[in-house]
Structures are given as structure tokens and as C-alpha cells.
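worker-03 picked up job from queue 'complexes'. Input manifest follows; two sequence lines, order preserved.
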Amino acid sequence: SYVLTQPPSVSVAPGKTARITCGGNNIGSKSVHWYQQKPGQAPVLVIYYDSDRPSGIPERFSGSNSGNTATLTISRVEAGDEADYYCQVWDSSSDHPEDVFGTGTKVTVL
Amino acid sequence: EVQLVESGGGLVQPGRSLRLSCTASGFTFGDYAMSWVRQAPGKGLEWVGFIRSKAYGGTTEYAASVKGRFTISRDDSKSIAYLQMNSLKTEDTAVYYCTRVSISEDYYFDYWGQGTLVTVSS
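worker-03 finished. Artifact:
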């Protein structure tokens, strides 16, 4: 099955930029979606189709995807951005199509 | 406003069955695929499966870890999606989230319920 690898943690100072990577074999050929999950809450979609933002998501959140790595970028980080972030793809390349989540990254605002 | 409310969670013994429900409101339920995603305590997200809308045959897809044990169904007249879980194992212990699958060529989850906890233990 398809595997998505994320760094376990990223630390960033307020006002700085956080970059969260999501590695997968030729992930650039797939569409990547990103979710934010704050403690005790359900996940929220923050980026879809690599770089599109749902309504209500700040422009500070952006995404890119190329080669073997997709990246979620959070600019001008705020304390409220502290959360777990997960990437996700739909893998239809095998006999057993499936949705796959990344391992998750905990973002800590210093 | 889109709302998804899960129910039916609780404590169940290994080998037994449990059925979860997801009651939807705020959108035309029959137009959307619906999915279940779970999260074991302190762990990451794991896709369980989804059911397509009737327009796409109402067919289902499942994760390998639950295929043959779990069944997803839907009742469009009641705007409810179900997750029937049989032969439960301790490793099925998790919060189970109901999600709406966005209408697009790709399968991603644009709305989530608050989740219901399933504990499998003797």
C-alpha cells in the first residue's frame, strides 16, 4: 500500500514560517489534501488539491506538491496554529484503491 | 450549515458487533459519498472506508484492515450513513469520525463529525 511520511514534529516561533513535508513515491502525480486537528477536536480541511483553500481558511496556509514531496506552509504563524497536521491522498494505482493519511506532524509554537 | 452527528459508540467485547450511525443535515445527503475515518488513542488518522452516492452506484471501498469485517451502508431517505462492525478486535478501539466526501474526481473529506468512541475490551 501507499505510504506517506511526515516529520513527527515541527517547532516554530510566532510570526515565522512553518513548513510541513509529506513524502511519498511520486506524490507529485497525485492530489494532496491537508487537515488540521487541534487537541480534543475533529480534523478540519485546510488545503485541498495541493494548494486550494476552503472558505474560511486564512491565506497564511498554502500548499505545494512536486516530485516525491508535498509541503504545507504556514506563514506568520500564530499560537492558534498549534495542532497536528495530516496529509492525505487517494491512491487508485493498485488493485486495492484506498485513501491514505500521512503519519501526522505536531506543530508547536514556541 | 453542514452537520454530521455520530452515535452508537461504546464498550464492546472482542468478537462482538456494533453499529455506528451518522446523521447528516444541512446538505443534500444523497448527492455525496460518505466515509468513516478512525483514530486510535494517541495515534494518527486511519481511513476505514466509504460509500459512493447512488449516482455512482452506491458502491463501497474499505481499508485492508477492516475489509470483510466492516460494512458501510446508507439510507438516503433518512440522511444516515452506517458503519456495521463485526468480529471486533481490541485494535479497533478508536474514535470513529463520519466524514462527507467532497464531490470531485478525488476522494477527500470536507466536513467531519465530532466522533464517537468505540472501546473493544473484555
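worker-03 released lock.
The interface with chain B takes residues 1, 31, 33, 35, 37, 41-45, 48-49, 54, 84, 86, 88, 90, 96-104 of chain A (CB under 8 Å).
The CA atoms of residues 60 and 81 of chain A lie 10 Å apart.
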